[in-house]
Amino acid sequence: MAYIVILNPLILGGFSADQATLDVAGGWLPNAQVAAVTALTAGVMTILFGVIARLPFGFAAGLGINSFLAASVVGQITWPEAMGLVLINGLIIVLLSSTGLRAMIFDAVPQQLKIAITVGIGFFIAFIGLVDSGFVRSSGAASPPVQLGDNGSVVTLPTTVFVIGLILTGILLARKVKAALLIGIVATTVIAVILEAIFKVGPSLGTNPAGWNLNAPVLPTSLVAAPDFGLIGQVSFGAFERIGVLAAVMLVFTLVFTNFFDAMGTMTGLANEAGLSDKKGNFPRLKSALIVEGVGAVVGGAASASSNTVFIESGAGIGEGARTGFANVVTGVLFLAAMFFTPLTQIVPLEVAASALVIVGALMVSQIRHIDFGEFSIVLPVFLTIVIMPLTYSIANGIGAGFISWVLVRSFSGKAKAISPLLWIVAAGFLVYFVRGPIEVLLAG
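User: That's the sequence. What structure does it adopt?
Assistant: Structure tokens below.
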């Protein structure tokens, strides 16, 4: 998960005003400050979740919401106003969780869909790993939209390191070696450092397609840097005045839906992978887990780190045997240490982390054996849930497609009585979520 300390500042911030994600007023978030609050909030929330929920689910700034803020929100409002909406989103989720409504929705989801969510997330994170490594790239054409490596061939050194890491870790796991993932990451990082020292590939930075995706594996000149917490408390609720109440409400609605169901799907997948789920797919201390997850959005917004949520990369720890909150305490302490050792976190290249993601994805996809493929009213919603997650790069989109298709196909197949009324309500909410673009246009008009 340490890559988020590097990646989140690149998404939300920048190194200077001409190399940053600017908001509507030309404001920007300094890279070093975002790195500091990213590590701080991840450490605090991961420990808090481990102590209260006692589950091995790590927390950090969610990649879905931070990308949404950078790409779609700050073009309309300022960064402090965007973080104010994130904070409001978190308070709403805490309220839903505290009243038990969120747990009721979780319980209303059929077991077959819960398994499909796990499998879909497995494909999703494997796809993320393949893309991050450069093994799968955009073709730049309408058909096919993606391709293997560069023009159908793996030719770059970083992608080769990814393949080495994938095969090495896979062999270690197949031989049931303890700490296989950790050994694979460390060994592949050492290989990457040696190769970079010899060939001087350098980072891609958008102009070097053969370079390392995010950071070159180079030993830093200094291992320690003092954290700068200047972004904490830089929150404003002026979005409602700047763009109007209705437009701001639609942004909050999108944040809540994304946060709510991304986290639900991730928790479902991790609990299944850890063997902590019961026959209905629920896991221990569900209500506490959902409340703390909402607090993560509040803390992330207040610190300008973006909403903190459950990280699917927690599956790496579960794959090594993590089953309790103690794993979170260790991870959280390491995140807090990362505030001071941000140069050290940059040694591990994204291609090495990507190989671990593909391995974890393969482990999660194995849950597909529990899905009933004998009935098509189950097959279609399950299929849509699984394929839409990686193809749209969104866990929430896959869950929404699965919910909507489940209630419609199952109802018109004569099984309407078995569907929870809550699932109907959530499916209707997802329908609004999917067509929010036209709704925003109508409201603007």
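The chain has 19 helices and six strands.
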